[in-house]
Amino acid sequence: MLESERKEAQLRHSIVFFVILLAAFVGLPIWYLTTTIYRAKLPEAKIIQMEHDIAGGIDYDVPFYVMNLPSSLDGLMEEAQKRIDRQMGKLQDAKAPIRVHVKLLKAQDLTVSKLDYKIRFIERDLMDETDTEAIYISPNSDREIKVFLSPNVIQNGMVTDFLMRVVTDMILAPEIGLLNEIAGVSEGASTSRSMIKIPYNDQYKISVSFLEEGDEPLRWDVKPIVDAFGKYLTILDSYANFTLETQLGYYETLPETVNLVKQKQEDEESPQVYILEDTSTFMDYSEWGLDQDVQLVPTINLVVYAPNRNRRILIANSTTNSFIVPQWGGMVIYNGAENEDEQEKNNLLVTTEDLEPVFNIFASQILQLLGAPDSPKSPFIRADMITRVQSAQNLLKSVDNLVSLIKLTRELPTIPIPEITMREVEETIALVNESMRIMRKWNESRWWKQVNELSARAVKISDKAFFQKDMVQQAFFPEDHKMAVYMPLLGPFATIMVLGLARLLKEKVKMRKGTKTDDEKVALDTKEKSVVGQ
């Protein structure tokens, strides 16, 4: 091999080695750093411990203050507490993850807030015509339970038993039913309630629509009743935040699919009566403008439908002429005021008094749509019940989200875990622990309002942590897809490198053979010269 060819080959070899070194010590580190998945370290030990604590059950106390206890009944508190504890243990299922307890406390009027549950004993006089025991639950916000004791109950020492039945069977039994539904032991009731209940959210919008079928528009005096209804919604402040809006629509004709059964009419001048037997096709959501809400918060729709004045529509088997659409809202068919002559005289004015029964129905429908039990009749106590149960459910769901996140990261080792996910997990843990602390060591009226706010935040943040967009995107990007992306880039480069190395090795072998041949020629020439010289 000539000297020029040798130098040219050595230059090529140096270039190839430089490219290999550049790829190995520069390219590979850069590729590794830019493609390595960052996985923040999640506090798995804390989550597992919290799951263990939650699995042990969520216990909370509901305090009942016995007001101005008569001196003749001083000894009943301890015995009544024991009876209530035994009865609560019987009513609650052992598998229920959430359990409620009653705390009886003595108190005076000046030391108790109106937001607390108060039990007030009232002894009936011997001369009282109504000499039987009774219970009265205030429908107002004072949450007072009046227990009327007959002389017979007091003399026979049955006050503690009666008090136990009042607290457990008459007040807290519906709440215990909700807890048993969570445990799955009341499957029938749970299925019926879950079909109606709107999924929980910490914010709701209530849309009240006034729709008319007739061509003579009614004059709706809605502002006073709507304002009063807005104040009524404040009883649900501990459960969620509610906003209220109204709309008015004219000439909302019934869909053709509605089948109205015409009743026989004796008086030709009176409006014709129709019976609505199937409510599933009554509403036309698109034509009535009831499906145009694009807000992210859940909407509870409440609709007042006024038929044409020459007919009345009655719902079969309904005393309130109303029905509920599961997970959507409620409907009331308004056939006009009871005194139609007065309404005609007032130029078709629908007064606040006319609308009061309608909004009373709406008030009941809202509680049903939120999953509240039917009793007791006090809406304030029913709102408290669903708030306490929902708070505990939020805690269970928050922990379940974190546990699912751990399982996901373990099963998918290539999924990234960003720093924001770790911060959201830590914030959820702090909110759950704070909620549990308040539940176990309550020291203020309606502790469940604060716990519900914390637990609702915990659910929302844990959902964000589990459904973090960076994690979700990577979870649907498997290894074979990565190879499909890398091969068009690395394939040609690797081919060039392999062919270059093959050529380099081939030239190396050729150069070694050429060098060996030249050395043999030199040795042979030297030997011949020495022979000739001799």
Strand order of the largest sheet: 2-1-3-5-4
Terminal CA distance: 32 Å
Tally the helices: what do you get? 14
Sketch the major β-sheet.
5 strands, mixed
Describe this structure in words.
- With 534 residues, the chain is α/β, with parallel strands linked by helices.
- 51% of the residues lie in helices and 17% in strands.
- It has 14 helices and 15 strands.
- The strands form four sheets. Strands 2-1-3-5-4 form a five-stranded mixed beta sheet. A five-stranded mixed beta sheet has the order 8-6-11-14-13, with helices on one face. The chain has a three-stranded mixed beta sheet with strand order 9-10-12, with no helix packed on it.
- It is elongated.
Key descriptive features of the protein:
alpha/beta, five-stranded mixed sheet, elongated
Q: Mind sketching the topology for me?
A:
Elements: H1 3-35, H2 44-55, E1 58-67, H3 76-91, E2 98-107, E3 117-123, E4 134-137, E5 144-149, H4 151-155, H5 159-183, H6 187-196, E6 203-212, E7 219-220, H7 223-232, E8 241-249, E9 260-262, E10 272-276, E11 299-306, E12 311-315, E13 322-325, E14 329-333, H8 340-345, E15 349-350, H9 352-369, H10 379-411, H11 419-440, H12 447-466, H13 469-475, H14 479-533
Helix pairs in contact: 1-14, 2-10, 3-5, 5-10, 7-9, 10-11, 10-12, 11-12
